[in-house]
Amino acid sequence: MDSSWTIAGTCFKTPLRILCRAFWLSRSRWKARAIGYRQTIEQLRQELQETRANSRQLRQQLKDAREKIQVLSRRPDHPPTFPHLTHLHGHQFSAQMIALCCTLSLRIGFRAVPDVLRLVAEAFGMSLKIPSRDAVRNWSCRNGVAILQEASQADDWVWMIDHSVQLGKMFVLVVLGIRQSQLPVGRPLRREDMTPLAVMPTRSRDKQEVERQLAEVAKDFGTPLAVLSDGACELHEGAERLKSQGFRGPHLDDVKHKVSNLLKKKLGKDERFKAFSAKLGQTTASIQQTELDHLLPPRKKEKSRFMDFDRLIDWATMVQHQLAQADDEAPEKSTRLIEKLGWVRDFQEDLHCWRECRQLVGKVLKYAGEQGVFVGSTEILRQQLLECSSDTPLAGEIGEAIVSIYQANEDRLSAAGLGSLRLPCSTEVLESAFGSFKALQRHHGRGTFTSLLAMFPSLFDNCTAEQIVRRFGSVSNKTVQAWLANAGLKNSTQSRRRRAYAEVMAAA
Q1: Can you give the pTM of this predicted structure?
Q2: pLDDT per residue over 290-305, tens digit each?
Q3: Highest-confidence range of 31-40, 292-301, 329-338, by mean pLDDT?
Q4: Could you report the per-residue pLDDT of 128-158, keeping only the tens digit for each?
Q5: Could you count the other beta carbons within 10 Å of the beta carbon of residue 486?
Q6: Nearest alpha carbon to residue 267 among 356, 407, 398, 406
Q7: 148-254+444-506 has which CATH code?
């Protein structure tokens, strides 16, 4: 008997094999579509679940925000405060605020600190108690006196010493120290590398007084491994007498001061350089209130003016370039430029020589700041100087003299039996601190030393709240007053001036 499928197949004109293949392919296509639809449905189901979860989260955040708004609406309208900052014991301000004020005062001066804090508080709507400028000054002085008590005795201190001179008959000897084991290599010394050992005002700076002061420092911190100064006779002779305290190390010369003296010797009596310097002064007077004021020569230093030698040569080089481009400018501007600054062209050959000298000086100062002095350092410097152009006789002489300066320091190092050590030979870090202090003091006195000198050590410090807590715990205001009295600053020029005016007011 035939099957029903065989009987049904007779109804189709198409052969069964073709029909089966067509039906099978159709079934496969529908099956694939069904699988795709199921996957799409599953994916949509997962996205729906995530959307519902996000919706619940957003509703919760909205609820929390509404609750915060209700809480804030019930609070009084007060600016934000700093409840996590607690007052330092015995003070009305926190250690963080005191540290901030001490740091700010070094940048902007004591008078400006309260104003800056007040502007910040107003700009951000903060409820901030503002200290007075007298409080900031007192904190800085107290911090400075505390820093002087932090150093300890050691057998590898390298001293950096120098005098600072201002109005009146008072001088200040500053002694900075750095441990030879902590001396950085490959970069100049920074202020934070140095440790203030002594800030000692005095009314005399002869060798006997210097000897007394240095002996006092040696008693407190130990005999130094080496001493570095700018070459002043009283410093050298005073340090020489330290031998009675057991000092056997070298007394090195600051290379920058030596080079400055070298330039003064070579150029100070040179008629061409004298004429160039005279023209600089005339040019300043003639263009300082004209359209050429941007070409003003750099301001000369009254003291150690040859330390500005590089700035003068750079200025003259710039003016030469401006003159070379003058033909491309408007005729009236070109004429004015040549009239006022055309004299620089008369020194073209001299400037070529001075530029060579400036290149040599820059090379040795960079080398001295980054590498210091050690056995073999002079030969390395000599090779570096050979890379500089020194065609003129003056440049050749200065190059040889620079090598001799470095060799003298190296010879002292070897003679002291310290040939295996590296020592600094630049007091730039101390000179810059003197400059910063004078800039700060300029706002508080007419160039005379006052009680502000107590804050000088803080110029070498990165003040933090932790340090303030520790230092103010050991140094009180009485300690600062005692330091000022011992330093003779209770009877300073400024103090006597105030008393003189007070007497007049009392008699009126």
Answers
A1: 0.77
A2: 888 888 888 876 555 5
A3: 31-40
A4: 889 999 999 999 999 999 999 999 999 899 9
A5: 11
A6: 398
A7: 3.30.420
Smallest CA-to-CA distance from 463 within 116, 194, 97, 134 is with 97
User: What count of residues does the chain have?
Assistant: 508
Q: Are 228 and 203 in contact (CB under 8 A)?
A: no
Residue pair 192/462 in contact (Cβ under 8 Å)? The answer is: yes
d(CA 107, CA 481): 25
Within 10 Å of residue 508's Cβ, how many Cβ atoms? 5
Alpha helices in 187-254 (DSSP H): 207-221, 233-240
Integer Cα distance of 128 and 125 in angstroms = 9
Q: What are phi and psi of 136, to 5 degrees?
A: -65, -40
CA distance 159 to 178: 7
Torsion angle of the four alpha carbons 494, 500, 502, 503, in this order, in degrees rounded to the nearest 10: 160
Report the distance separating Cα 408 and Cα 313, nearest Å: 28
* d(C-alpha 302, C-alpha 38), whole Å: 92
- DSSP H helical ranges for 109-183: 112-123, 133-148
Q: What percent of the chain has pLDDT over 70?
A: 89
Dihedrals φ, ψ of 178, to 5°? -145, 135
Q: Is residue 82 predicted with pLDDT exceeding 70?
A: no
- Cβ neighbours, 10 Å, residue 397: 14
> First and final CA of the chain: distance in angstroms?
150
Which residues are CB-contacts of 271 (< 8 A; sequence separation ≥ 6)? none
By C-alpha distance, which of 458, 442, 469 is closest to 105?
458
Which distant-in-sequence residues (6+ apart) come within 8 Å of 114 by Cβ?
130, 131, 132, 133, 136
CA distance 433 to 191: 8
Angle of CA points 62, 66, 69, to nearest 5°: 140
Domain boundaries of the chain, sorted by first residue: 148-254+444-506, 259-415
**81 neighbors 97 (Cβ within 8 angstroms):** no
Q: Tell me the C-alpha distance between 150 and 221, whole Å.
A: 11
**Phi then psi dihedrals of residue 252, to 5 deg:** -90, 155
The reported pLDDT for the residue numbered 447 is: 57
What is the DSSP code (8-state) at residue 344? G
Tokens of 351: 């400037």
